[in-house]
Amino acid sequence: MTSNHGRPLLPRISGDGSFSLYSPEFAEGFHSADGALGEARRVYVEPAQLDRFPRKSRLVVVDVGVGTGTNTAALIESIQKRELMMTWWGLEQDPLPSQLALDDPGFQAQWPQPVLSQLNQLIHGDTLLWGDARQRLADLQRLQAGHCDLVLLDAFSPRRCPQLWSQEFLRGLASLLTPQGRLITYCSAAAVRRSLITAGLRLSAICSPQGSGRWSAGTVASPTPLPDVPPLRPLTPMELEHLNTRAGEPYKDPGGCGTAEDILAARSLAQQGSRAESTSEWQRRWRLTDGAQ
Ligand SMILES: C[S@@+](CC[C@H](N)C(=O)[O-])C[C@H]1O[C@@H](n2cnc3c(N)ncnc32)[C@H](O)[C@@H]1O
Question: Which atom of ligand 1 is nearest to the CA of 132?
Fold first, then answer.
């Protein structure tokens, strides 16, 4: 099967047995190889800390890069268990990932029937805004600025898809949040974290599953300071220093229509002219061998 963009998407079984896809166009998998379902729960649902919301309350949620719908389905599962309600918005340019997932018996078997049925309705409903998320975000801002409790940001990595990690796009997503709202992402890249701070948000890291203090499983950002309650933790001094290295140079897309190549080339030029500490120097100081983005 080929995606909207003419390249095939390859179905995969991820580490925990759950359904995933690989995109040759972006040269990346849709989820961590350890497990799509585990990642959705650990990185997106648990950091949302749904216990904050009283029973029967209605959450406004935005899923950026809906893909197979795994993150949304994991959230629906938790929302249904807690008797919460949800107004959902999705941003996605390609209908094929959700079609492949919903047609796959393995994906169907992952979910209780009420979850699958709500996911189906959302994917086929008019709150999924198809098209380039950068353009569709403007429509969402008109409708939901300041009203969203959760924004789940699950784009391909900044190096592969910088369009959805630019300072401008992240500022737009930040504008959707309520004062206690949370933007949640698997990404810990310094450039992304710095752009979220520039957008006026406070950050926490998502504890890594191994409990290692050094690396995190992602980032949560909110207009209001976040609690120091697992799975959230404050950024470490090492992580904070990382933001001020050249790796913290933001991705910029002022017109909201730059290609990945344009955005990466402009950032690389800005890094070359930057007086910030080099990322390798920071790595040496902290005795790091890999993992810094
Ligand atoms: C890492 S995958 C998302 C995984 C997804 N959350 C899931 O659970 O399957 C990234 C998604 O972003 C979509 N995407 C990439 N560039 C986009 C753009 N400019 N606008 C909207 N969607 C985009 C891709 O089609 C893909 O479905």
Answer: 20
Q: What is the pLDDT of residues 62-96, one digit of tens each?
A: 999 999 999 999 999 999 999 999 999 999 999 99
Centroid of ligand 1 to alpha carbon of 287 (angstroms):
34
In a domain, 3, yes or no: no
| Total domains, the chain | 1
Q: What do you get for the CA distance between the two ends of the chain, in Å?
A: 32
Give the CATH number of the domain where residue 226 resides. 3.40.50.150
43 belongs to a structural domain: yes
Q: Which two tokens stand for residue 69?
A: 């719908």
Ligand 1 centroid distance, CA of 278 (Å): 31
Residue 100, ligand 1, Cβ within 6 A: no
Domain enclosing residue 146, as ranges: 10-285
Count CB neighbours of 40 within 10 A: 26
pLDDT of residue 215: 82
* Residue nearest atom 8 of ligand 1, based on CA coordinates: 70
Band (pLDDT 50/70/90 cuts) for residue 5 is low
The verdict on residue 123 lying in a domain is yes
User: What is this structure's pTM?
Assistant: 0.96
Task: Write out pLDDT tens, residues 187-224.
Answer: 999 999 999 999 999 999 999 977 666 789 999 999 99
Instruction: Give the chain's count of helices (H) and strands (E).
Output: 11, 11
